[in-house]
Fold:
Amino acid sequence: MLGYGYYFDPTYLLVIIGAVLSIWASSRVNSTYNKYSRVRSMTGMTGAEAARMILNYNGLSDVRVEHVSGSLTDHYDPRTKVLRLSDSTYGSGSVAAIGVAAHECGHAVQDKDGYVPLKIRGALVPVANLGSALGLPIVILGLIFGLSYTFIQIGIWVFAAAVLFQIVTLPVEFNASGRALQMLQSYRILTEEETGYCRKVLSAAALTYVAAAASSILQLLRLYLLAGGRRNRD
Structure:
């Protein structure tokens, strides 16, 4: 038997707020990226060429730059030392594409420098995946079948690992963007004006991480409230 009415659960408001934040952030990054993807850089470099230059300047000639399908699926893999750029970034000479490529290079430089938050995030990946997959189901099963409060608490703590991952991700992403903007201007890949456009793209992208963290925190709060209601009735 559910602790909160089956037909009306006021804690769903937290889920709705999180969903709205995520939708807004996604819309913002897409509109900003689309706007500056139509602005060509003065150098004429592609995202892949800019990435290669940045990596070489930082003594990372061993890091490969590869093409991966999709849009904004760009990422750096610290395990294989491979920087993968998406269809919308790899061959594009836009300010937006170069900014995204530089951001991923920022992660590669973090890896080289032993940036602590990046190491922590990497260590949290397995438990975060477990928390995302099992945390919520454990709590919901505990509520539906009237299992012990301890069982429900386990689900909350498991889910909290995924929330912690989202929180640790924030400084990692902000720092990578800061490095990217500095390198783009220092290496004269973008002009000062173009760097300003790039800052808008990366700032919009950062909102998606903020929204994801906020959404996870709200979901964790919801689980805590549900569990608290169950404990009060025991």
